[in-house]
Fold:
Amino acid sequence: AADTNQPRRFLCRGAAVSQLPPRLRATAAAEAKFSERKSNARALPGSSFAGSEVAGDLQPTSKWEQDEARGRRWPALFPRIPGPLPREGEAAKEKVNFVPQPPEEQRAPRSVKYSSLVALAFIIRPTAVIPWIPLVFRHFWQERKKLNLILHQFLPIGFVTLTLSLIIDRIFFGQWTLVQYNFLKFNVLQNLGTFYGSHPWHWYFSQGFPAVLGTHLPFFIHGCFLAPKRYRILLVTVLWTLLIYSMLSHKEFRFIYPVLPFCMVFCGYSLNHLKTWKKPALSFLFLSNMLLALYTGLVHQRGTLDVMTHIQELCYNNRNKSSASVFIMMPCHSTPYYSHVHYPLPMRFLQCPPDLTGKSQYLDEADIFYLNPLNWLYKEFHNDSTLPTHLIIFSILEEEISAFLIASNYERTAVFFHTHLPEGRTGSHIYVYERK
Structure:
């Protein structure tokens, strides 16, 4: 009975491990949305929050237009994988922190709160400090009691958060280590992120930022000319963040997600100014972003998740679970791993660690494999006893290794759609082969 229930227990644990991060993201996003709505409502008479605090120099534009703009921004509608939780946390902290300045006598508690959140964001992901540098500098510049701000707020909060980080890392790594410095050393000083790809300096301005904003881009540009001068600090923050990230060779869309809440402020001003064209503009934003969100969330590149569900079911249904093994012959990080299987099933994927030794002409396992997949397989599995029971490949690789599949008695047992737009080493479908 114990053996019968064991797979079920693993499946339940696997579901918890794979589903908990999206729930945490949803909670963080909900809290951030509530904070945004609360801060925006302070400027509107008659709202449930109006009059609770007096808005200061950064008074938001219409709550309705900003909510409409944010709700129609497709990256915000669905979770982003991989690595979404830290980025969602960064954006959430920025949304929570960006609220109208209260009167002087109420500013100290609010200041401590935002400083603590900024420090927490930095500890979790050091790059989170980038968009906050101009905002914190503005706060420091406008503060009358600058020395008091440093001695009684910045230094104590920084000391406490850094100490907690050191203690946690000491427990985890078994030795004293400053993770934030290691992050800086790896990504900036040694610039090892280029191993995973590099782009020209202008990429964020010419491709990255326009792609992330999508159909909101014209409204953002329009709003930049309409927004009051007091909002220039937000535009400076966006430009500052793009410039800093442009200095690094390795660039990704997700790196600039945290500035999107600031961009929506300008989109709100644009929509509020349109008057006659407001409803058509909102309809355009809704349709363009919703269709894109549905396609990318439900159709595009879904195969790598579907195949892991298949592997999870394999663990439960296969009578010979003890002898089953899986080899994922795909580009690195194509699929999740044990978070979606959560069963002691031997699994292997092509390795692609960065070169930490400084070797010239360094090639990782995945690169070597794709130079000559058929030859690599014959060398790697010269003994039939080492062959895995299941192979997972993209459809584009099937023809090239068909001789090995036939000789090793593999048979295709499952096909999963992946994308309508295959490129490079990625195919339109994912094939599962089982050894008979």
Q: What stands out?
A: The two ends are 29 Å apart (CA to CA). Confidence is low (pLDDT under 50) at residues 41-61, 78-83, 99-106. The chain has 17 helices and five strands.
